[in-house]
P-loop containing nucleoside triphosphate hydrolase protein (Drechslerella dactyloides), 620 residues
Amino acid sequence: MEAISAVLPGLTASATGDPSEGFPGGQFMGNMLASIGFDPSLLVKISVTITIFASMFGFLSNAWEGISQMSRFFSENFISSATIRSTDEAYVYIMRFLYAHNISTDSRLFGVTCRRNQMNPNYREHAKWNGQDAENEVDGDGFNIVEDSLGPKLKYNAAPGFSHFWYKHRLFLMQRKLKDDYYGFEEPEVDLTLISIGRSPLALRCLLEEARAEYLRDRQSNTLIHTIVASYPPNWSVGYPRPPRSLDSVIMKKQDKERLLKDMKEYLAPNTVHWYHKHGLPYRRGYLFYGLPGAGKTSLTMALACELNLPIYCLSLASTMMSDDNLLGLFGKLPKRCIVLMEDIDSAGIDKRPGPGGRLYTALTSQDEEDDDEDHAEDIRKREERKKLQLFKSESTVTLSGLLNAIDGISSHEGRILIMTTNYRQLLDDALIRPGRVDMEIKFEHADIEVLEGIFRGVYADPDDLPDFIRGKEKMTDEEYMRRYHEKLNKLAHEFASRVPSGKFSPAQVQGYLLGHKSDPEEAMDCLDEWLESKVDEINQLEEAEKKAKERLERAAERKIKELQKKKKERLKQERQEKEEEEEEEKARKEKEVEAAAEAEKEKRNKGGLGKWLVRRDTS
Ligand SMILES: Nc1ncnc2c1ncn2[C@@H]1O[C@H](COP(=O)(O)OP(=O)(O)OP(=O)(O)O)[C@@H](O)[C@H]1O
């Protein structure tokens, strides 16, 4: 109480019952409060409590400030941190690294997703990189890592919030903050902060570098395929890895393969870009792979990407997401060196002009047909064939001019390799495949003898798959075994190619048959006749149907041409008649005019004769 009295003399005075010794008017106030039954000493207690709380608050805020300063001092001097956004590719490096090293997935707080997420295709796309999930990858015990007999397996990863992990005997802290303002169908955005203890950021940088190197190494050994993510506007996906495919595994004419590879390598050589610029040419190269379905167009693209170490960006023009603007935007987001693969380029039904609503096939208006005559017979054939195929096409809003603009418009991307594939080259607009847009064409046909042999050898190339192919292996040296293996394989391949009719089957058909006997080439030879018999009938029927369809098409085109010729003749005849009528009318009009003029002259003359006679009579 003495201490309080020292601080608050006025109030303590009232507390002692002598308010007159306190502040002026204290006694009066005391008396007044007492008269309404209020104990003045309560005022003192309230004041003391407020003072204590105020002092405590002051103390705590000073302490908090001190702690913040200490923590700032600590972070500035004793830790290093790196912040990465999930929209950055570096985020994928880190998440993949953490997952691959089982980091933070074994803590008590963890996130969980299905390895194959059925609910969200975009997330599934992303998860492939997050967890390095290859659909068919198996674990050490030979089980599929993505799903078991019940369905998709679970995958654990670092939970949002704070966690810690040890890597190479160093402590790291990690914070993952989820942004909750994302739309349901998009990836949740995440801020990831990695913290290492110690003034030097070296440990953190080493970890980040390792993550980067692992990611890029993995990318190099696989071919990265980017597809389109259904966002607004559409964008390229992070990309998922596909096992590499060797060029040798694609069987085709040797000179075609060599020509193509040489051309691409030359284009990608470091000096080529300067050469193009020096000559004022846009640095772009386009290829058209056309022909039979299942003849290796996509396989060749995959193998080339692997050989040249380029990622593939797949574009489907048949997608309803695709429009001229979206296409241009996607081309603008391509990296400097890549392969853009546009499969089934004909399926977009590209016609010469944007039609109503931008639909390509529907651009065939009746006006177009009116304009045609026998000089455009080839166009009419194309159109008739397109109309037939139209039934199988999907909706697309890409116009030919939109596509051409994306491929090589003024703002178009440089440095890419464009590969377009089609089964119907004859339907493509000439503008699309003119030199400059398509610099090299490769035709894919039915398997000939060379291809048949190659496919046979390719399917049975690995001696490990055929342990019983050569008997008595134990008694041979490795060299002897390999020599005998290849000798026998070549002999069988040769026999196979001579028994299968050349130019009748697609490589995919032949490969499909052999895969049915993949562990026994001799069995494949034994069953060959049976397969050929069943297939030859099928092929003959197909060929017959194709021939008839072609004839029908030809007849339809002929009919159309005749119709147009007839229309043109009628139009010309009508024009001639109209002209003749006009000329006759003109002639009649002129004759009338002449007659009228003559009449007028005569009248004038008559009038002139009568006048003279009257004048002469008056004067006489
Ligand atoms: N020339 C070939 N060499 C090796 N394999 C081939 C060849 N052609 C086709 N195949 C095999 O056939 C299957 C289909 O091939 P691919 O998809 O490359 O054909 P495509 O010409 O792109 O067909 P589509 O025109 O229908 O897209 C693949 O499994 C591939 O391995």
Observations:
- Confidence is low (pLDDT under 50) at residues 1-17, 120-136, 351-374.
- The pocket of adenosine-5'-triphosphate is lined by residues 250-252, 293-299, 423, 444, 455, 507-508, 511 (CB under 6 Å).
- Residues 2-77 form one domain.
